[in-house]
Amino acid sequence: MALDAWVATLAFSGQIFCDFAGYSTTAIGVAMCLGFAMPDNFRFPYAAVGFSDFWRRWHITLSSWLRDYLYIPLGGNRHGPARTYTALMGTMLLGGLWHGAAWTFVVWGGLHGLYLVVERWLRARFKGWTPGPLAFVGLGLLTYVLVNITWVFFRAKDFTVASTMLQSMAGLAADPIPMIALLPMIYALVIVGGIVGTHWWMRDKTLEIAVERTPAWLVGGLLAIMAVAVLAEQGKGSAFIYFQF
Q1: Is 99 an annotated catalytic residue?
Q2: Neighbouring C-beta atoms of residue 97, cutoff 10 Å
């Protein structure tokens, strides 16, 4: 069913963010304990408005490397629109291939490249237009929906699985069958909704400032809850998704 397919895709969007941002934050924290300052790798990406904004917030170390060592050497935005669009597509296709020698990763990167090209073209066509509050939020939600479509290719083992998933999301499955029970569906929507809502709330803030402005008793309580959760779930987790990369 379309609802099941969308819930599964949204759940994966939450899983991969928690997986990757979680262990990146752990690495940053361990480095700080040893006296090293490492750059942030995520800045609330699911509150991004547009794909250039998304890549300034998602896997920042990789996107910075792609910009400096692929996009700019390929010509960047210095040689006209056609060269810029080619550089964007080439950069993102190679960025997709960096994740693994599979055509699904290439398509994932290609879709992001296409999104970036279309966004740049629209910005040039509607130069000077500033979205109002509702349009701003609407563009953010559209960005999130389109990101989730790319996650299908990132997660799928082959194009057959990806095609089946996309057809289900579009309500075009030949024989739709409910796959997810109601309670897990509610859990997934609540958790992912909480992640996206937090990203929007923190969109223009930093974690350090938020912690400074939060009462000490609340920070201590949240840390205690997290510590208990870590202890309670010990041994139940699987390997990080991004370990394969």
Answers
A1: yes
A2: 16
- pLDDT tens sequence across 63-102: 999 999 999 999 988 889 999 999 999 999 999 999 988 9
Question: pTM for the whole thing?
Answer: 0.91
Q: Tell me the HSE value of 155 on the side-chain side, using a 13 A CA sphere.
A: 22
- pLDDT, mean of residues 122-134: 91
Q: Which tokens is 198 given?
A: 């937090």
HSE-CB of 71 using CA atoms within 13 angstroms: 19
> Cα torsion for 51, 187, 221, 25, to the nearest 10°?
-30
Q: What are phi and psi for residue 151, nearest 5 degrees?
A: -60, -25
Catalytic option among 79, 99, 112, 199? 99
Please state the rounded mean pLDDT for residues 190-199: 96
| pLDDT for res 206 | 86
Q: What token pair was written down for 71?
A: 């996009």
Question: Across residues 225-229, what is the average pLDDT?
Answer: 90
